[in-house]
Amino acid sequence: MTLQGNYEQIALKDYAERAYLDYSMYVVLDRALPFVGDGLKPVQRRIVYAMSDLGLGATAKPRKSALTVGEVLGKYHPHGDSACYEAMVLMTQPFSYRYPLITGQGNFGSADDPKSFAAMRYTEAKLTPIAELLLQELGQGTVDFTPNYDGTQQEPSWLPARVPHVLLNGSTGIAVGMATDIPPHNLREIVSACIRLLDDPEASIADLCEHVLGPDYPTTAEIITPRADLVAMYTTGTGSVRARATYVREDGNIVITALPYQVSPSKIIEQLAAQMRAKKLPMIEDLRDESDHENPIRLVLVPRSNRIDADEIMPHLFATTDLEKSFRVNLNMIGLDGRPQVKNLKQILSEWLRFRTDTVTRRLQHRLAKVERRLHLLEGLRIAYLNLDEVIRIIRTEEDPKAVLMARFGLSEEQTDYILETRLRQLARLEEMKINGERDALEEERARLNVLLNSKARLKTLIKDELREDAKAFGDERRSPLVARAVAQALDESALVASEPVTIVLSEKGWVRAAKGHDIDAAGLSYREGDAYLASVKGRTTQNVAFIDSTGRSYSAPAHTLPSARGNGEPLSGRFGLPAGARIDALAAADPATRLVLASDLGYGFVTRFENLLANKKAGKQLMNLDDKARVLAPALVADSARDRIVVATTAGHLLMFSVAELPELDNGGKGNKLVEIPKPKLSAGERVAGIAVVAEGKGEVTIYAGQRKLVLRWADLVEYGGGRATRGNLLPRGLQRVERLETTA
Fold this sequence. Notes:
alpha+beta; Topoisomerase II, domain 5; Gyrase A, domain 2; 4-stranded antiparallel beta sheet; 23% strand
C-alpha cells in the first residue's frame, strides 16, 4: 500500500474484500437482525423513538404517518421512504404483530392483502400503550446515545425494554450470508420463564419449556408440532413450526374459522378453486368467502352431499393447500456482545435478563444521583434558612456575595448558586417546612435505592415484581392452541375423481381420447385426416388405462387425465416414451385386481392381473415377449378364472374354446403358452389368430366377422367348438374361412 497525495493505493482484491465485509456487517448489524435487548431492528427503533419524540404517545391524538416517516428519514434513517413506511405499517397490523406497537387510523392493510395499505399521506398513527414498555425508562439514564448519520442529532443505541420484546413479536430478516426467523410468543409465558430463570439460574431448557409452551401467533389456528420437536427447536435455536387452520360444521357445510399466520383467505380460495377447476375436488360443490368485520375469517365449503365426512376431506385440503403451513424458525439475533448468533431459549432469556439487570441498575443509579444532588441543594438551602439574616446582609452589602457565602458557611458552588437564584417569596417559614419534608422523603428514598443497588436479591425481586406488573397489565391468553396432530396426508388421486362411465378411443395413428358414457359409437367419431378408428374400451374415470405397443411394452395413465373426445385427443407418443418405430396396438381399462388374457396373433398368450400392466415410468415396462412380426391382440377381461372360457378364432376359420384355468397366470409377463394349434405351413401362408374373447360358462355369446358376413354364436353353439388348449379347434361354417375379428356381445 502506498500513499500519493490524498489518495490511497491498495490492491483491488484487498479493496473488494474489505468493501464487501464492511457492507455485510452493516447489513447484519444495522438493517436485518434484531438486538436481543429491545428486540428491534434499527429502522423499527428509530420509528418508535421518533414517534415518542413527536409526542405521539398512546393518549395523544394521532398524526399523519408522513410526518413520522419524514422525521425518521430526516433525522435518523437516511433510506427510502417506502421501506420505512412499510416497516411502520407492519408494526401497526394486528394480524402481523402479536403485540402491535403502533395504533393506526386509516387503511393499514388487511389479513387478505397485507400490502394493500394506503399511502402515508392518508393514514395517521400513534403509539400503543404496550410501546411504553420500550420507552418508559428512556430518560432515566438507561441507554447510551450516539450521533445520528450527520452528527446533528443524538439517537438511542437501544431502547430500555421492560419485557423480552425480541420474543414477543418475533422478527424476520435476510442479511448477507444469514437470516432470522423468530416467531412471536405469549407475554405471560415469556415473563413466567424469565421469573423461573431468575429464581433458578441453573434451570434447563426443558424446564423453561414448561412455561414457554411454543410460539403464539396472532391467529387462532392450531399449532400441531409435537412438543418434543418444540423443545428441540428451543434447544438448538433452529427448527420449524407447523400450523393448521381450524374448522367447524354448520348445517352440513364446512366453515373454516382460522388460518395459519400470514395466510390470506384469497389465496386459499384461489388454491381451492384451482383444484375444483382441475376436477380434483369432486366432493366440494361450492365455496364462499363470508368474512366480515365480525368474522375476520369465514370460508364456507359446501359438500356435494351430507354423506361426505369433513374429517376425511379436510386432511387432504390441509396437505394440498396453505390451510396447513410450516414456518421456519431461526433464532438468530445480535447479542449483548454486538455479534450475531443463533441462540437457544435459555441464552436469549439469560442475555435479556442481564440486559434488564443492567438497565434497572442504571435507572436506580441515575435516580440515586438525582436524589443526592437534590439533597445537596436542600442542605445548602437549609443552612441559608438557619442564617437567613446574615445571608440577606451578605447579598445586600458584599460586592461578591457568592464567594463570601461559600467562605462564611462552607457551601459548594452549586449550593451557593441555588441560594442566590431562590426567590424572596420562597423564604417564608412555610417553605422551610416543605423543604424539611422533601428532605426526609428523599433521605428515605436514598436509603431504599442504596439497599437495592447493594443487594442482588433485592434487585432480582424488583425485576420480578416489575415483570409481573407488566404481564398483568399487557398480557393476555394464548391465541394459538397447541394440539398434537399428525401431519396431514393428501388423498390418492383416484379417490378424488368422481366415478363416471367413460369410453377410451384409440386411433390407428396412436391418438387417444375419452368420451363420457358407454353408449359411444367410437368408429363413428371424426378423426384427423389420414387417421381412423383402431380400438376402444369401456371403463370408468377412477380406473387406469393400459396401452400395449408393438414391442410388447405396457404404459398406463389415469382415465380422467385423458383428453376429451370433443376434439381429436392427443398423441400417446407425446405422453409416453415409445421405442423408435413402435406403435400402440391395444388398450385395456379395469380395476387393478382384475384378470385378463393377453395374446399375440401368433397364438401365444397368458393370464395376468391388470395391475401388472401399470407402469409409473414414462418409458413403460416390458410385458410381452413378441416374436418378429407378431402383433398384440385386444385383451379380454376375465370375470371368473375357474368357470370362464377363452374363445380363439384364426384367420383361416378355425375356432377353439377352452377353460381359462388351462392357461397359466404370469405376473412378470413373457411369451406365454400356446392357445391354438396353427400348422407351420398355414402359418407361413399367413394364418394368424384373428382375435380372442372370454365368455361366461352357460351364457356366453360372441360375434365373428368375416368380410361382409357375421355369425353370432351363443353358448349352445360354442360348446361344439370346445376342446383342449393348444388344439386345432373346429372349422367354422362355409363362408367364414377368412375371419377378421370376433367380439364378445354378452
